[in-house]
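Key result, reporting period 2: structure in, sequence out.
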């Protein structure tokens, strides 16, 4: 039954985790120009991120959809709860791959 549910939900899923605000965020050295870094405008729900690119003169927001988006306040427990299904599949003898990519300190 677990395998059937996994197949129905999809064999490939994409999750995003928004990095929490850090104390040094917003501080800038004279040599460092992060003024063109995109700003996250909002997390509309647990599946959509809206981003505003300062380079875009029209200031139009861009929406990105994922299978699940974790907010900055979500902890490691929430992430593990979501991927624990893959761990269960691996223990049942199925091949799984969890690829994690992100900035240092993003969790």
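The corresponding designed sequence is given below.
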């Amino acid at each position: 039954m677990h395998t059937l549910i996994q197949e129905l939900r999809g064999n490939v899923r994409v999750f995003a985790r928004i990095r929490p605000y850090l104390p040094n965020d917003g501080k800038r050295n004279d040599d460092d120009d992060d003024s063109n870094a995109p700003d996250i405008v909002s997390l509309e729900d647990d599946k959509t991120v809206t981003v505003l690119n300062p380079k875009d003169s029209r200031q139009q927001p861009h929406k990105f959809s994922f299978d699940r988006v974790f907010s900055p306040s979500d902890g490691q427990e929430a992430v593990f709860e979501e991927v624990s299904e893959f761990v269960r599949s691996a223990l049942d003898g199925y091949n799984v791959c969890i690829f994690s990519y992100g900035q240092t300190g993003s969790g």
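The chain has one domain: 2-19+33-91. The mean pLDDT is 75. This case is discussed further under Risks and Mitigation.
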